[in-house]
Each structure stands twice: as structure tokens, then as C-alpha cells.
Design goal:
globular, Aspartate Aminotransferase, domain 2, binds pyridoxal-5'-phosphate, alpha/beta, 42% helix, seven-stranded mixed β-sheet, four-stranded antiparallel β-sheet
Length: 393
């Protein structure tokens, strides 16, 4: 007999993937330029030239070493380079043995949750939230507890998080810059969270881990993205190069267990154990070399900044309400009717593919991914206009 839970996961439609697949079909039927696909978060800028160069250079090195296994936690020199980058950039005393290289943030999160939770624990997520959190929380045998962000700032609602913490809570997942809303948590907001968590740890007599999911750290529009381990010691950072270096298909990222927490070495060992248990032998080796060589490489955010300006100015002129994004490449737009799915369905009639907010655990909004060609945004404006007008009739 197959495992029912796994069957359900395999069969369960992802609204984002479905919309993306629909877009491909539609493009084949009526032409690429007639469909405005804002569904998926695939970076639209190419990886930096340095990535290509490092890959080519590495291909000229000893193939036996290059294509062989690395130690499970990663190549020692790569872990040291990542730790050095964390020390130099954020001023926290990161050591190489607290860095564990992974196949992207997805693996980093699944591994970290498995490392610090027990079946039956509760894991807090901030809604709207990245849908795959539910999968990884469920796979760890834990229960997801949703706490809405503040509206319309979409900052953390610290009193609400406090109210949701119980004897069973072991992890709080935060994601800044945020998918889907583009919010970046302010230093003040994170400090308020840290003070509350420290107080609750005392009160409950058990550790509360903060899992900071950071694939969009490098993609911001002029705001500070405070480094969470410098604010709350019991932080586990799940980082990814998918968006920063435009390499989502290559799978490279890391877990950094803050050196500042007690039992940091023990937690790191549990991370290595969870990686082993989940079948991650080691992160892709060629990509570990790329990550180390490009660790200080700036992300190319210019195209996203241009798209962000075009989209927000265009939608504002048409009367749409949205959350001004400080980071990532998503715009959170208020649906023109309470039912986000119905709004997304209606948008399809105008060849606009917008992800309904139900996928992220809340109603009434859609997510517009603006990691697309600039012309897609320019050419989509008449469709957004017609969509709005269809509600005025
Ligand atoms: N977390 C968030 C919030 C994301 O948006 C994504 C990908 O879109 C991930 C994690 C997974 O990223 P990765 O490609 O690094 O596994």
C-alpha cells in the first residue's frame, strides 16, 4: 500500500504551478506576447557572468574530485568562505562548523525543522505564508499554527504571535523580504519579536527557535534587511542563492545555526543528522564552488526595480490597491471582489495570470510576480484596465 499522505501531496494541485502550466498552454495557443503570466517566481535576470566563468573554470579541474561526493555538511573551504561572509557582512561571530550547505532554501527549511522539532510540536507561520511551509511542517509530524501579519503594513504582529505560543511551540518561521507580500521586517519589529520570544522561553522553560527563511535577502529596494541572528540568538538562517544569483534550478543554499545560541554545536549536529535522515548526501558540489566564488557578488536588482516602478505606477493609475514592496519581486494586490479565486479566474479572461491569495492562507488578494520581461508589464496594462472596468459595469 502506498502512503496516503504522500499520495495526497503528490496529487495535490499547486495553484501556482497550475496557473503556470495553463499559461504555457495558452501561450502555445494564442502566442507568447498575448499572455501575461505573473504566476511564478523564476528570476528573470540572468545569473551573473561570474557564475558561468566559475563553472567553466571548474570544468577544467580534476573531474574525479569535481564530481565526487563532498563531506555531508559541505566542502570545508566553502563553509569557511560562507562563515567569513557572514562575519564580515553582519558582524556576527560565524564559524564554519555552524554552516551546513544545502540544495537551496527548501532543503534548508525541511532539514532545520526536522532537526529541532518533535512530532506533535506546533510551528508558527505568519500568514500570508509560502505554501510549502505546510508540506515541510507536516512532514516533520508537526502542526502549522497561522498568525496573520498586521494589515496593511504586513509587519509581524508580535502580541498575536505571543498569544499563539503554547507549551508545544518549538519554531516560529519568518520570511523577510517576504513572499508573497514584499514586506521587509523593520529592526524595531524584529527587536520586539526577540524580546517577546526571550520572555516566553523563560516563562515556558523551553527553547523557541526562530527560523529565518531568507532567499530574497539580496533583493531589496533601498531598505535595511536586519540580520536576525544579531537580534535573536536562537536563530537558524535558511539561505538560498536561487534568487540572489538567479540559479533556482541548480539548488544551492545553506543553513546557518547562529553561534550565539546555547548548544549551537549540538543544534548543528542535529541539522547534519536531519540532512542525513532525509537523504541529502551533500549539496551539489559544482554549485558549492560557485556559491563560494560568488559569495560577495552583488545581485542584479535593477531590472526588478524598474518592473516594480512600472507595475506600481501603472496599477495605481488604474485605481488598484496594493502593498508597496520593499523587497523580493512580488506585488500583493487587493482583489476587486472578496473571492480571490473568482477574481483570478476573471483575470484569466483578460489573459492575466495572477495567483489567488488562498494559496498563501488568506482571502481577498492576488500575488503578481514581477520577475518578468519589462514588456510583459507594459503590454499587460490594457488588460489590467479592462479587468478593473469589468467590475465597474
Ligand atoms: N522560501 C520562500 C519564501 C520562497 O519563495 C522559496 C522559493 O520561491 C523558497 C523558500 C525555496 O527556495 P529554494 O529555491 O532556495 O529552495
Amino acid at each position: 500500500m502506498i502512503n496516503e499522505k504522500m499520495y495526497e501531496l503528490g496529487a495535490e494541485p499547486s495553484a501556482i504551478r497550475e496557473l503556470f502550466a495553463y499559461g504555457m498552454q495558452r501561450k502555445a495557443a494564442i502566442g507568447d506576447d498575448k499572455v501575461f503570466d505573473f504566476s511564478i517566481g523564476n528570476p528573470s535576470v540572468p545569473a551573473p557572468e561570474k557564475v558561468r566563468q566559475v563553472m567553466l573554470d571548474m570544468l577544467d579541474t580534476d573531474p574525479v574530485a569535481l564530481h565526487g561526493y563532498s563531506p555531508a555538511s559541505g566542502i570545508p573551504s566553502v563553509r569557511e568562505t560562507v562563515a567569513r561572509h557572514i562575519r564580515d557582512t553582519y558582524g556576527v561571530p560565524a564559524q564554519a562548523n555552524q554552516v551546513y550547505m544545502t540544495a537551496g532554501a527548501a532543503a534548508a527549511i525541511a532539514i532545520s525543522l526536522a532537526a529541532v522539532t518533535h512530532p506533535g510540536d506546533e510551528v508558527i507561520v505568519i500568514s500570508p505564508f509560502f505554501p510549502e511551509y505546510s508540506t515541510w511542517i507536516g512532514a516533520s509530524g508537526c502542526t502549522r499554527v497561522e498568525v496573520p501579519a498586521q494589515v496593511p503594513s504586513f509587519q509581524l504582529d508580535v502580541p498575536a504571535i505571543e498569544a499563539a505560543i503554547t507549551q508545544k511551540t518549538s519554531v516560529i518561521i519568518i520570511n523577510s523580504p517576504n513572499n508573497p507580500v514584499g514586506a521587509v521586517y523593520t529592526r524595531e519589529n524584529l527587536e520586539e519579536l526577540a524580546a517577546m520570544l526571550a520572555r516566553k522561553e523563560e516563562e515556558l522553560g523551553r527553547p523557541l527557535f526562530l527560523l529565518s527563511d531568507e532567499p530574497y535577502r539580496a533583493i531589496t529596494y533601498g531598505v535595511e534587511v536586519p540580520y536576525v541572528p544579531a537580534i535573536y540568538p536562537r536563530t537558524i538562517v535558511c539561505y538560498s542563492y536561487s534568487k540572489a544569483l538567479s540559479l533556482p534550478g541548480e539548488r544551492i543554499g545553506y543553513v546557518y545555526v547562529s553561534d550565539l545560541m546555547d548548544n549551537a554545536a549540538e543544534v548543528s549536529t542535529a541539522v547534519a543528522g536531519a540532512g542525513r535522515a532525509l537523504g541529502y548526501i551533500c549539496a551539489p558540489v559544482l554549485l558549492q564552488h560557485v556559491a563560494a566564488a560568488c559569495v560577495d557578488e552583488p545581485s542584479d536588482v535593477e531590472a526588478y526595480a524598474t518592473n516594480r516602478a512600472l507595475l506600481t505606477e501603472g496599477l495605481s493609475a488604474l485605481g488598484y490597491e496594493y502593498v508597496e514592496p520593499d523587497g523580493a519581486f512580488y506585488l500583493w494586490v487587493r482583489a476587486l471582489e472578496p473571492d480571490a479565486q473568482a477574481f483570478s479566474d476573471r483575470a484569466k479572461q483578460f489573459e492575466l495570470l495572477l495567483v489567488p491569495s488562498d494559496s498563501f492562507g488568506v482571502g481577498g488578494w492576488v500575488r503578481v510576480s514581477y520577475c518578468v520581461a519589462r514588456e510583459t508589464i507594459e503590454n499587460a496594462m490594457p488588460a489590467f484596465k479592462a479587468l478593473a472596468e469589468s467590475y465597474a459595469e
